[in-house]
Design brief:
196 residues; alpha+beta; two-stranded antiparallel ribbon
Length: 196
């Protein structure tokens, strides 16, 4: 192999590796869907809803979760890729109306953003009825958010908070019940005096 072919091959590998790293964090402009798109089918087969936190991206797989940060005001939102686009030079993501509102960019129309891949929503199989037949369709479940407990510094999901709350309630009821139980001294099998 000649030196020129080796350099060309090496340059190709570096370009591919660098383009994959660029997908981790990209800067560019974001736009958003107009109200006329509400209810239309997206590329992944779902229907666009203006109140959902979704987006269009040219290449990332459907279900990819992206953190989009408005560079003008620092506001952030996590969106799920459900569509393809935008197909305008310099734009890296096309957001739902709800996501655009979260970023405070509706009045601007287009905003400079940083886009960072933060994960992938796990597909959950379900059955959809199309043309009288049941077919498999994909829906995506976002990872459950965790909230900090200021007392312990630990993070818990809402389900874990509910379980902890129920355990604390049961413990409190048991303590109250123990305090309210009348105590008697039993002499010869008969209750003779209440002790408090």
């Amino acid at each position: 192999m000649t030196f020129q072919k080796t350099v060309l091959l090496l340059a190709t590998f570096i370009t591919i590796a660098f383009s994959n790293l660029c997908h981790a964090q990209t800067q560019g402009k974001a736009s958003f869907y107009g109200n006329g798109f509400h209810g239309r089918l997206t590329s992944d087969g779902s229907r666009y809803h203006k109140d959902s936190l979704t987006c269009a991206h040219r290449t990332l797989p459907f279900g990819t979760l992206l953190k989009v940060t408005n560079q003008k005001n620092g506001k952030e939102v996590v969106v799920r890729v459900t569509d393809r686009g935008p197909f305008v030079k310099g734009r890296v993501v096309d957001l739902s109306m709800a996501a655009a509102k979260e970023l405070g960019m509706v009045s601007m129309g287009v905003a400079p953003v940083t886009v960072q891949k933060v994960g992938h929503a796990a597909p959950k199989a379900k059955k959809a009825r199309r043309g009288g037949k049941l077919t498999a369709a994909n829906s995506y479940v976002l990872p459950e958010a965790k909230y900090i407990d200021p007392a312990t510094g630990q993070f818990y999901t809402m389900q874990e908070w509910k379980e902890r709350g129920e355990q604390a309630r049961q413990q409190h009821l048991a303590e109250l019940s123990a305090k309210q139980q009348p105590r008697y001294r039993i002499l010869g099998g008969k209750h003779t005096a209440r002790l408090n």
